[in-house]
User: What shape does this take?
Amino acid sequence: MQLRELIERTVAGLGYELVDFETSPRARLLRVFIDTPAGGTGITVEDCATVSNQLTRVFEVENVDYDRLEVSSPGLDRPLRKAADFVRFHGSEVQLRVRLPIDGQRNFTGVLAGLEGEGAEMKVRLQSQAGVREFAFDSIEKARLVPKF
Assistant: This one.
């Protein structure tokens, strides 16, 4: 089983959502970012401890070799990875980075105005000062919420 699948299954089994995970070279450090399902109240230190303890046990059973495990919330500038993230945060301000330049530009900021289509035809709509722009979902390299202070 792939490490991502193992982590995702464990986190989901505890009632949380896996937002992302990172590994350092040779997987010595594992960073896991969790969130509550849509409409949740946010992640607490106790939530992180619960997930960390469970992952430690699972990694021991599955013989996953690592030195350090960090579990945390995704933060205010939460990355958007899955199509469900773009639906969940509809109406939020986001920063997008596309893989290839569009009119000489790769970075865009605006309010998430929706997700349309399915599969390879899926498009993300972004409302900015220049109007509404559409981006092929597969062309998005990185997307993050813009924190409001």
Notes: The two ends are 41 Å apart (CA to CA). The chain has a mean pLDDT of 91. The first strand starts at residue 17 and ends at 23.
